[in-house]
Design a protein that fits this description.
Elements (H helix, E strand, L loop, with lengths): L27 E2 L4 E4 L4 E10 L5 H4 L14 E9 L5 E10 L7 E12 L6 H5 E4 L7 E4 L4 E3 L7 E4 L12 E15 L2 H9 L4 E2 L17 E11 L2 E10 L60
Antiparallel strand pairs: 1-3, 2-3, 3-5, 4-5, 6-11, 7-8, 9-10, 11-14, 12-13, 13-14
Length: 305
């Protein structure tokens, strides 16, 4: 195929379906460019240019960060080129931008259950606990042997409920605990915002950042930032986070985890004398099976350490 003939330096605005005028070497913008806004502040668009002869993609495509010809808030982050049989080069550049920083958070909520050992159930002590207060500070305790199978030689090591346990507990080893997860994402051009998110992995907040409290759990739970992903789009970043709801209507353990925005490391250790204290005491004892399996109050599982 013979080499294409170079056109004159200037042509009418419409020429064979191609918009073409001015200096051909720089390429000419085409009328079928696009632009969209998602309602949260994210802007996206494309722009097309035509070159009359074989240009390499490096010479024909705009550089990363080049403003969109119609709206400078959008910046180029990638380009592609098509070379037709006439030797002409068609470049399509993709642009992205934001009208506010950060954009409004996009979120989704999923709720499920996960299998946990029955010993982690918050009411277990009320069902099967039995206590022998050998000392006031450090009582020796064991499970009710009429209800529970334990490891041989270790009365404190719960295995499962006995098959003969009443009220549907026979053979129970685990239960389905409710769990909730919120995924949230936003765009920003602020690198300090990106660093803030990465610095707070493993920390908790009343609700995920940017998610309205009205859609979050209202039972005393809070949320732990369990993961974050950062994607670069030219001059802005997409930040994706995932938050896990705490279980049983109790907040995340503040001895182990820190609050979002606080320093590094584990939670507070000021004034720790023992794990649990009165928080894990059982004021009333309501064992399964009624009075046949009754015992003294099950005051505490974990005592002073």
């Amino acid at each position: 195929m013979p080499a294409p003939t170079s056109p004159p330096a200037s042509l009418p605005s419409a020429h064979g379906g191609i918009r073409s005028f001015g200096t051909w070497g720089a390429g000419e913008g085409q009328p079928d460019w696009t632009m969209s806004i998602d309602g949260r502040g994210l802007l996206e668009g494309t722009y097309k240019k035509h070159h009359p002869s074989n240009y390499g993609i490096g010479g024909a495509a705009p550089n990363k960060g080049t403003p969109h010809a119609q709206d400078g808030r959008l910046k180029c982050y990638k380009s592609s080129a098509t070379f037709d049989k006439m030797g002409r080069c068609w470049v399509t550049a993709s642009y992205i931008g934001i009208s506010k920083d950060p954009t409004e958070t996009e979120w989704e909520i999923s709720s499920t259950t996960s299998s946990e050992s029955i010993v982690l159930h918050p009411d277990l002590g009320n069902w099967v606990g039995i206590i022998n207060p050998a000392t006031a500070k450090n009582p020796n305790w064991s499970w009710n042997r009429d209800l529970v199978e334990t490891d041989t030689g270790n009365s404190q090591s719960f295995v499962r409920f006995k098959i003969t346990a009443p009220n549907g507990f026979g053979g129970v080893e685990s239960y389905l605990a409710p769990r909730g997860t919120i995924k949230a994402s936003f765009y920003t051009g602020n690198k300090s915002k990106v660093r803030e998110v990465l610095a707070n992995i493993g920390k908790y907040a009343p609700q995920p950042k940017g998610v309205p409290s009205e859609v979050c759990a209202q039972n005393g739970s809070n949320y732990l930032l369990t993961s974050a992903g950062i994607s670069e789009y030219g001059t802005i970043f997409k930040v994706q986070t995932e938050w896990m709801q705490s279980a049983h209507g109790e907040p995340w353990n503040t001895y182990i985890y820190k609050a979002y925005g606080s320093g590094n490391g584990g939670g507070s250790s000021a004034g720790i004398n023992r794990i649990g204290g009165n928080k894990y005491g059982y004021a009333s004892f309501n064992p399964i099976g009624g009075t046949n399996f009754g015992s003294a109050p099950f005051n505490s599982i974990i005592s002073s350490i």
